[in-house]
Write a structure and sequence with these properties.
This protein is α+β, with helices and mostly antiparallel strands. The C terminus is likely disordered. Helices cover about 40% and strands about 25% of the residues. Helix 1 packs across helix 2 and helix 18 runs antiparallel to helix 19. Strands 17, 18, 19, 20, 21, 22, 23 and 24 form an eight-stranded mixed β-sheet that branches. Strands 10-9-16-15-12-11 form a six-stranded antiparallel β-sheet. The chain is elongated and about 115 Å long. It contains 23 helices and 24 strands.
Length: about 675
């Protein structure tokens, strides 16, 4: 390209600092731990890029950033990382030799430059005559935008210090990053609407506060602020200014004695106001507050115990309130009851939702009183709300629009926001309830699947009769594991025996989870394992024998570390069987047939530390490499007569392969 961002000094005025701060005026959404943005951000960026560099460049940016579409929807939500990807793509496509931070600064300017197309230019101009007024009115701008972008989690900013060379602002947000975008946005506002040049002093990387209200920063903005400070001095009544010359000498006016205003008179003028001391103890309240609430409920109470600060969302501390001298503050009145739970200040039925008394006004620090006066008015929706508070139209001030709004039934923005927040709280609570329901359902399923196989349980849930779940299996493998000397341990200490058995069975359960087998039950000191059911497979004998070998090894390890070693004997048999769920109470997935009985006989005729397998199991095991067995001989089995059986010794696939290779070479 012939022209880059650096070739446009009105677009890029200074090199950006590393990312430290966040968005301001940006419609952003906070959902769980992921931060997202409304499409408005990308539309403003796209409109300016297309105007200055062409549509092809914008499409190339989207393609390089990995965005599949070519347009954005204003009220749709997109991942915030897309902005960073677009900035990275812009470095090579439209701003060679620039950095991603400089491109982000350019994007911030784009948002303000395109504000007119989205009818935000008038809103920005109405914030005030000076740039300081704009900084103080940003919260109102965010409130206006929140109704169009309900999922927006907007930041908060207010002025801490003012002087001729700029201001120090407090910035709080739930997001951390995108400092260049913030600088570009503020600088474009200062240039376009207030005709001043803006710079930002480097601040520490770490915020001075990070808690449940988000990250908090102190930022120094440098600009020509002399006109604002001069007007502020005039507002305070200082008539002798250097720029005005000898104003008092040119007039013959005589200084009148000042009149002091008592707190009693002040509270008559502002009947809903509060006065509280440095320890946040309420010293006095307006007479209408006494009418709504009894004075003993408020005077002497600690402010954070009877109210919370809705706007701005800060903790109620003296340090925070002193800094809110030029900020519209909203309090929501509540009352601590019996020192534990909160109930509404007004008397309401226990089954009704607690009422809220919302107050809006400003904090004024009166140094002579060593107190803060909260000058405020109530936010009332309609005549019904007014009646519920025990007030009349005559109680509302004449100099505001409160009476007209109440009679017209119009709702204040804060009331609407409160209704929205309460609805959102209910939605979040419902979401948490659904998550808790899913968690308990998962736990219930885990418990059910520990008693009944999942496939069988799903059949029963679909309405299938328990007896209909029974099915015949042509070939499965059954194993019984018995702890032979647990009775001796039980005779010494039953509690110790139970604890030991729990440790053993827990270790065996972990082994079960690693193989394709099913634990049928644990009855007393016997542990039953089945392979090939309820899920049919051709490796059932291998799976069961592997489990049996690992059982033996883990029991030997536990016995070495125990003062009282435990011995087990294992029996394995393969054959056909029938399995299913019978009955309706305490359902269990059971196996029936001669195969189960024969496997039990293999276990009872085994020896401690041995794995006893029948001839059918041995024959099936020959299909798998690595199992080393030893002939036991012919033994008498109760109910079966004489049977040829084997000992399963170990699993060693490498050794078996070597023997197999030797046999092949010999032939």
């Amino acid at each position: 390209m012939k022209e880059t961002i650096k070739d446009r000094p009105h677009l890029l005025k200074r090199k950006s600092q590393p990312n430290r701060f966040l968005f301001i005026l940006l419609p952003t959404s906070l959902e769980s731990d992921l931060f997202e943005m409304y499409g408005l951000i990308f539309e403003t960026i796209g409109s300016i890029v297309q105007m200055e560099y062409g549509n092809d460049v914008w499409l190339s940016l989207l393609e390089k950033a990995g965005y599949q579409n070519t347009t954005f929807c204003t009220h749709s939500i997109y991942p915030e990382e897309l902005v960073m990807k677009l900035a990275g793509a812009a470095v090579t496509l439209i701003a060679d030799a620039s950095t991603a931070e400089e491109c982000l600064t350019y994007f911030g300017r784009c948002f303000i430059r395109a504000a007119g197309a989205f009818k935000y230019e008038t809103l920005i101009k109405s914030c005030g005559r000076f740039f300081c007024h704009f900084l103080s009115g940003i919260d109102s701008v965010h409130l206006h935008m929140k109704y169009r972008y309900p999922k927006m989690e907007h930041p908060f900013i207010y002025v801490l210090e003012e002087d001729d060379n700029g201001v120090v602002i407090h910035y709080r947000t739930f997001r951390n990053g995108f400092y260049p975008f913030l600088y570009g946005l503020l600088d474009q506002v200062a240039t376009d609407f207030y005709g001043i040049r803006l710079s930002m002093t480097a601040i520490s990387e770490n915020p001075y506060g990070c808690n449940d209200v988000g990250y908090q920063f102190r930022i120094r903005l440098n600009f020509d602020n002399r006109n604002y400070m001069a007007c502020k001095t005039i507002e305070k009544g200082a008539m002798a200014l250097e720029r005005k010359g000898n104003f008092l000498q040119s007039t013959n006016c005589r200084k009148e004695p000042s009149t002091e205003l008592s707190s009693r008179t002040l509270l008559k003028l502002f009947p809903f106001s509060l006065i509280f001391s440095q320890d946040l103890k309420i010293m006095s309240v307006g007479y209408l507050m006494k009418q709504i609430f009894s004075s003993r409920m408020l005077i002497g109470q600690i402010l954070p115990e009877v109210a919370r600060l809705r706007r701005p969302r800060l903790n109620l501390t003296w340090e925070n309130l002193v800094t809110l001298q030029r900020v519209a503050c909203e309090l929501e009145m509540t009352l601590v009851h019996n020192g534990s739970c909160k109930r509404p200040l007004l008397d309401t039925a226990s089954n009704e939702e607690p009422r809220r008394l919302l107050l809006r006004g400003e904090m004024r620090h009166i140094q002579d009183w060593q107190a803060i006066v909260y000058l405020c008015n109530p936010l009332i929706n309609d005549m019904e709300d007014l009646s519920d508070l025990g007030l009349a139209l005559n109680d509302l001030s004449l100099h505001g629009h409160g009476r007209e709004m109440v009679m017209a039934g119009k709702q204040h923005n804060s009331r609407l926001e409160d209704l929205y927040e309460r609805a959102e709280e209910k939605a979040n609570e419902l979401h948490r309830t659904h998550e808790l329901l899913d968690e308990w359902k998962r736990r219930g399923d885990e418990l059910l699947y520990s008693m009944i196989p999942q496939s069988i349980a799903e059949s029963l849930r679909r309405g299938k009769e328990p007896v209909d779940t029974c099915e015949a299996f042509d070939s499965i493998t059954v194993s019984f594991v018995e702890m032979t000397n647990i009775d001796d341990i039980m005779a010494k200490s039953a509690l110790e025996a139970v604890s030991y058995m729990n440790a053993i069975f827990s270790a065996l359960d972990k082994i079960m989870d690693q193989h394709n087998v099913y634990k049928v039950e644990t009855v007393g000191k016997v542990y039953m394992v089945v392979g090939g059911a309820p899920t049919r497979n051709d490796t059932h004998v291998k799976d069961v024998c592997m489990v049996a070998l690992e059982f033996r090894d883990v029991i030997n390890e536990l016995s070495v570390n125990s003062a009282t070693p435990v011995h087990i004997r294992i029996g394995v048999h393969s054959g056909s069987t029938v399995a299913g769920v019978l009955g309706r109470k305490q359902p269990r997935y059971c196996f029936f047939g001669d195969t189960v009985n024969t496997a039990a006989r293999m276990q009872t005729t085994s020896l401690p530390g041995k794995i006893h397998i029948s001839r059918p199991s041995y024959n099936l095991l020959q299909c798998f490499v690595g199992f080393i067995c030893e002939m036991r001989g012919t033994i008498m089995i109760k109910g079966k007569g004489e049977m040829e059986t084997h000992w399963l010794l170990r699993y060693h696939p490498l050794q078996d392969r070597l023997l197999h290779d030797d046999d092949c070479r010999a032939t």
